[in-house]
Amino acid sequence: MAFYCLDTFGLYQKALTGTKLPTTQYMSVDPVAQGLYAAKCSACDSYLEGFHWKPPYRVDLELRAGVFGDIAFGPHIDILISDAFRNIFHQERMTGCSMPTKVEVRRVKKRGKPPGNPPDYYLTRVQLSNVRIDVAASGIRRDEAICPECLTGGILDGYDRIIVEPDSWTGEDIFIAKGLTGTIICSQRFYDVVARYELQNVPLLEAELCKCQF
Ligand SMILES: [Zn+2]
Question: What distance in angstroms lies between residue 130's CA and the mean position of ligand 1's atoms?
Answer without folding.
Answer: 13
